[in-house]
Every structure is written in C-alpha cells, then in structure tokens.
Design brief:
The longest helix has 26 residues. This protein has a single domain, classed as Aminopeptidase (3-Layer(aba) Sandwich), CATH 3.40.630.10. It is α/β, with parallel strands linked by helices. The chain is globular and about 55 Å long. The relative contact order is 0.16. It starts with a helix and ends in an 8-residue tail after the last helix. Helices cover 38% and strands 15% of the residues. The protein is built from nine helices and eight strands. Strands 1-2-4-3-5-8-6-7 form an eight-stranded mixed β-sheet, sandwiched between helices. This is M28 family metallopeptidase. InterPro entries: EF_Hand_1_Ca_BS, M28_fam, Peptidase_M28. Keywords: Signal.
Length: 336
C-alpha cells in the first residue's frame, strides 16, 4: 500500500508539472516585435547598394538591367526559403511585349509568398515596383535608389521577417503575397497585368494592398523634423483599414503621418500614380506609403548613399507591423 501511495503521488506530481508546462505554453503571447527587429538598416543598406548599383543599368522595363534585377530578387527569395505561388522555382509572372505600348520588350513581375496558416485563401498583398527609368541619352545611369529601390528592399526585409515568424510556428493566419511589379514608370503596367489579366490569387479574396513607392528619403517639407510618411488612400475604401493603420503607428512608432496628398483635390494626383491604384479600382482597400518627391527624383543623382537608412528601417518595420495586424486579426477588414 505504501508503494502504491508513493506511485500515486509521483503520478499526480508529474501530471501537475505537465499541466503547468502546457498551460505556460498556451499562455505565451506571440508578438510581432521580435520579428520586426530582424528588419535592420544594415541589411537594407547592403541590399540597396547592390540593387541600385550601376550594374543594374537603371532597371528600365524589358532591358538587360531589369532582367538582372529580377534575378537578384529571385535569388533573395530562394536563399530565404520563401517559395513562389506560381510554380516551384518559378518566381516570374511573364508579361509579353504586346501588352505594352511602344517598343518595350517582354518583362516580368516577381512573386513570392507565405501561405496563411488558418485562412490561406485570404491574401494581403505587399507591393513595390522593381523598374526605373534606365539610362539617360547622355549615358548617365538613373539608379533609382529611392524610386523604388527603397520599396523593393523593404519588401525583401518584410518577407524575411514573416519567414522567421513562420519558422517559429508563428506564421501569418492569412497569406502574404510579396509582389514586385514591372512597368510602373511607363504606365503601371505590371500591377495592371496582375490585377486585370492574371491575378494569381482571386481579387475577391484579396483583403488589402500595402504599396511602397519611395520611402528612403526626406522631402523639403520635413527636413527639420523627425521621421514621417505620407499616407495615401488608407481611408478611401475602408475606414477600418485607416483606423488599424493609425493604431499600429501609435502603439509602436508614433511617427508623423502626413495626409496632404490624400486630399481628393490634390493637384499631384498621387493616388492614381502608383501601383496600388490597380487594386483600389477593383474595390480593394489600399495604403500607399510615400516620402514625397525631392531634387533627385528621376535623376541620376537618386543614389543609395543619399538614403536615410534609420528612417527606412523604421518605416519598413511600420509596414511589417501593419501587415502583421491585417494578416492575423480574426475578421478580414470591411470595405465601406
């Protein structure tokens, strides 16, 4: 009887410990800060000095430099173990020359994704354009470090952060599509092709588009101020998206959100001038992240040494946090 009593006590103790351990595991709260911190100014700078180098010849749509750019993007995703939604090893959505006006050659969008763990059919699209304006007639290379090298490398870092979360068993509930589009500089062709001709994921299942186009510099209005971003479109189709965006910023960063260009009467009409528009016209809520124009816009002087990498790091982390919230909340955001 004594041995039986000891055995029962031991069993109860082990069961209690096991329950306690399981309870602790259950109670552990997953937060995005750990993964946001993997987005660093050092890595952003290293990638951008490659992507906006002379080797890529200004990345003009269809030209050899643009082909080098897409191979670079593919190599980054392959190295990170992030697959393509098109087919195994095939990261390029091919766009025929006949789709473009003028004498533009065949070109490609680059797609990678992380499949949602609970609601894989619902998709968050994070986009940036991979092209720029190429080489000037006098032979000067327009490197496009800010436009849109900054958005391109931001997506790569965001993708790696989500991959790190997935490896830890904390992958996003909804699917995240990392969409690098071509032909933006000549008429938003790549995003239009994806939205109108070949949406790899049905548009009805696309929850939101976060579009990044120039987030590495500071414009004249904000030279003497701290970090900021122009946000365009966040409240035009979903007030819920706008609210989430504001709450995420307030919780983690509290940088200045400038809505000057969000005005319906803005003469610059930036809402219609970047790739988010091809999602917005299909009633998909969007946010366009933008640092404003500067003296080096569309000039050979838009080089990686002029990027504010501290600001770029924070801005990229902000977009990651926003995507995390959209991907992991219980209900998809509502369209007004």
């Amino acid at each position: 009887m004594k041995k039986l009593a000891i055995l029962l006590c031991t069993t109860l103790l082990l069961t209690s410990c096991s329950s306690s351990q399981n309870k602790n595991k259950t109670q552990k709260t997953v937060t995005p800060e750990t993964y946001a911190k993997t987005i660093t100014s050092t890595e952003l700078k290293e990638m951008l000095f490659t992507y906006a180098s002379d080797e890529f010849e200004g990345r003009r749509t269809g030209e050899p430099g643009q082909k080098k750019a897409i191979e670079y993007l593919k190599s980054q995703y392959v190295s990170a173990g992030i697959p393509s939604p098109i087919a195994e090893g095939d990261y390029f959505q091919e766009i025929p020359a006949s789709y473009f006006k003028g004498d533009t050659k065949d070109s490609e969008n680059v797609l990678a994704y992380i499949k949602g763990s609970e609601k894989p059919e619902e998709v968050i699209v994070i986009s940036a354009h991979l092209d720029h304006i190429g080489v000037s007639k006098n032979g000067d290379i327009n490197n496009g470090a800010d436009d849109d090298g900054s958005g391109t490398v931001a997506i790569l870092e965001i993708a790696e952060a989500f991959k790190a979360a997935e490896k830890d068993g904390n992958g996003p509930k909804r699917t995240i599509l990392f969409l690098h589009v071509t032909g933006e500089e000549i008429g938003l062709y790549g995003s239009r092709y994806y939205a109108d001709e070949d949406p790899i994921f049905p548009l009805k299942n696309t929850v939101a588009n976060l579009n990044i186009d120039m987030i590495g510099r500071v414009d004249s209005k904000h030279e003497e101020k701290g970090n900021y971003l122009y946000l365009i479109g966040s409240d035009k189709l979903s007030k819920e998206l706008h609210k989430i965006s504001e709450e995420v910023n307030k919780k983690y960063f509290n940088i200045e959100f400038d809505y000057t260009y969000n005005d319906d009467n803005d003469p610059n009409r930036f809402y219609y001038r970047s790739d988010h528009y091809n999602f917005a016209k299909n009633n998909i809520p969007v946010i366009f992240y933008f640092n404003g124009t500067h003296a080096d816009y569309h000039r050979p002087s838009d080089t990686p040494d002029k990027i504010n990498y501290e600001f770029l790091e924070t801005r990229t982390r902000l977009i990651f946090h926003t995507a995390w919230e959209l991907a992991n909340r219980e209900e998809r955001i509502k369209v007004d």
